[in-house]
Amino acid sequence: MFSQVLLMLVAIAAGVAVLATGLFLAPLSEQLDDQAMRRALAIAQTTAAQPRLAEELTSTPASADGPVQAEAERIRLASGAEYVVVMNMDGVRWSHTNPAEIGERVSTDPRQALAGREVMQIDSGTLGRSARGKVPLRDDEGDIVGAVSVGIEYDSVRARLIHAIPGLFAYAGGALAVGALAAYLISRRVQRQTRDLAFSDIAGLLAEREAMLHGIREGVVALDREGRIRLLNDEAGRLLGIGDEAVGEPLAEALGEGRTTDVLAGTVTGTDLLTVRGQRVLVANRMPTDDGGAVATLRDRTEVERLGRELDSTRGLIDALRAQDHEHANRMHTLLGLLELEMYEEAVEFVGEVVGEHRATAEQVTEKIHDPLLAALLVGKATVAAERGVALRISDGTLLPDRLIDPRGLVTVMGNLVDNALDAVAGTGHARVEVELRAEGRTAVLTVRDTGPGIPSGQRELIFTDGWSTKQPPAHGKRGIGLSLVRRLAERQGGSARVAEADGGGAVFTVVLPEALADPGLAPEPAAGFLLENFTTSVEGAAEEAAAAAEESR
């Protein structure tokens, strides 16, 4: 590649030198011709201005020894002209370089000069090709009595041109040498920067780069030192929701303000930074480049985070089942002891109390929350809360009909809020969490209060940003997404999510979801006991078996 670049640059320098020389020589020849004609004209004007020349022309015959010839020769020798010819009105010479031509008619047309006009031209005569100047000759009264013709030898003009060419070529050669040296230095620099790759190799690498960038399933965004997008592959455009029109725009204009812009711009530093763009959870990494820009990579963690949330839900379900199993085992042991001690009436009473307790919990939820998914969630959370020593209470103002348009979305919101509240109050004295869900027309309002330490006023907006968390990250991924998703879900429906200080201490989270419920009559409400019957079936069965055993013993 080095030799190719060098040859191209030298050829360009040589071509420029030749072109410049040709462009200089063409006007130089014309300039020299013009200078010669103007010089001949000036000599002719000086000759015609001699005070006695017109009188001598009209009063003396044409001869080699006449005063006109003498004056013309004096001027010719003094000026270096090829000839100085003085003629009368008939074009007959009174002077000439060759005395034999005196008395003869001039060889070129004198009519323009004899008519009173001054003439400059390149023409051929008896002495060959010359640059000529012709002027009229006037007497003291201003009448034209003849003309003066002066010629400058054309070979002298050509000689001046030829004489200038070697110097011009010397300058052109010097320029070519400088251009060749510059071409060599540039070629060496290009060789170092391209690592001596041939043009075909560079073209191949570029094609492979484009195919790789647009083929990988990872977003790549390149930024210049001014923070403008200079490269965007297909996956990055899909993940960020922008197109090729964003290339060349500042990052803030293309993406808008937010955490994603801060992460890509380097305002937020770190590795594997989480950010939420639309409905996608992205993992971003940023690497600065030597030119002051940066390259950022994006990975879609939506599926992974969804699996993580499902894993959290599964763990929550397992905790609930474990708590129920632990509680059920204790009660079965108690029941077994009562039966072994033949305390049958006490056993029947104990089973009734257990069934009543579970029924009371389920009834409390299902009477106020008619959506089966939300009711099941809160029943399960109540069991987990009881095991962790937290009192989970349904507010008296709670009443939510079974007209939810997106119950899964509310399950996500309520699950995140309750889990955060349980984590906040766990291990504190008089730990209590209160949940309130109510409908205001078609708007659903969710409120979760806790008796935990609360949220400092300076962090009440910060907790809703991606990646912010006070907890240790789980094994499957990063924390700091739950509250961010809660707010995004609320804002996507035109609502809001906020946190404030609860009465008596702690925090109160309020989520408003407009248009969350369908119009009355479009969705039938199930009976209040529908979920209760399914939830308490196993407990009632156990109670019936215990009662039957007691009757047999009697």
Automatic annotation (TrEMBL):
- Which residues, if any, are the signal sequence? none
**InterPro entries linked to this entry:** HATPase_C_sf (IPR036890), HATPase_dom (IPR003594), His_kinase_dom (IPR005467), PAS (IPR000014), PAS-like_dom_sf (IPR035965), PAS_fold (IPR013767), sCache_3 (IPR033463), Sensor-like_sf (IPR029151)
Substrates-to-products reaction catalysed? ATP + protein L-histidine = ADP + protein N-phospho-L-histidine
Q: What is its EC number?
A: 2.7.13.3
Q: Where is the Histidine kinase domain?
A: 406-517
Transmembrane residue ranges: 6-28, 168-186
Write out the GO cellular component annotations.
plasma membrane
Q: Give, as one word, the top-level EC class.
A: transferase
Looking at the keywords, is DNA-binding present? Answer: no
List the membrane topology term(s): Multi-pass membrane protein
**UniProt keyword list:** ATP-binding, Cell membrane, Kinase, Membrane, Nucleotide-binding, Phosphoprotein, Transferase, Transmembrane, Transmembrane helix, Two-component regulatory system
Q: Where does the protein end up?
A: Cell membrane
Q: Name one GO biological process term.
A: regulation of DNA-templated transcription
List the protein's name: histidine kinase
Organism ancestry: Bacteria, Bacillati, Actinomycetota, Actinomycetes, Kitasatosporales
